[in-house]
Each structure stands twice: as structure tokens, then as C-alpha cells.
Amino acid sequence: MAQILWTESLSVGIREIDEQHKVLIEMINELSTLTSTDEKNSVVPSVISRLVNYTRDHFSFEEGLLGKVSDQHGQRHKGEHAAFISKIEDYMEACGSGYTPYADLVEYLREYWLVQHIEQVDKELGRLLSA
After folding, report:
1. How far apart are CA 36 and CA 58, in angstroms?
2. Nearest CA among 115, 110, 123, 114 for reference residue 77
3. Treating both helix axes as pointing N-terminal to C-terminal, what angle do 71-96 and 40-65 enclose, rounded to 10 degrees?
4. What is the pLDDT of residues 89-124, one digit of tens each?
5. CB-CB neighbours of 29 under 10 Å
């Protein structure tokens, strides 16, 4: 699977968030690469764990900014964060039980997180904060 490359089209206009997104993209790329290796069952769970921990910190940072925007956007944004963490935790639980849905996880991260969350919700946050 092709690596995700950071481009300015992914920028939300908030330097700290953009830098955090770059780290998350690197983690997704690492996960994508590792899922096609023979060692995947021994290394992927730790990468997922790091991804979840970093994502929680990232979401906490974003949610700290939500008080500056409309309650409607804030509630939607927080709801998406909670749903995302829940979904990733489901993948972690599946991995712990022996089922390894790595390809599904990578696709979810690429499609949901990149296409939906950054392109729509985070960019809206950037627009609202710069208004």
C-alpha cells in the first residue's frame, strides 16, 4: 500500500495540529508497512498501542481548543474523537484475542481519519479558530 505523504492540502492552518497530524501519518505509514511483514503479529500491537496513546494526547490538545468555537462543532468533534478511540480499541481487543484485522485497521485509519476527520472536521476547526 502506498505511503501517505504530508501535503499542504492536509493542513488545518494550526501549526501544532499540523505537526501532530504529521506524526500520526508517520505512525499510520509504519503500521501499513509492518502489516505486510512476517513479524507483524509481534510488532503491530505495540505500534497500535503507541498510536492510541499519541492520538489521545492529540485529541486532548484539539479538545482544549474547542471552547473557542461553537458548541455544535465542539460536540460533533468530541463525539468523533470518542468514536475513533472506541474503534481503535476494538481493533486492539481483536488483536489480543488472536484475530488480526490489520488491513482493515490501516484502511480505516487512512479513509476515516484522513479523509473524513482531517479533511472535514479538523479543517472546519481551523476555519472557525481563524475567523
Report:
1. 27
2. 123
3. 170
4. 888 888 778 777 888 888 899 888 877 899 999 999
5. 17
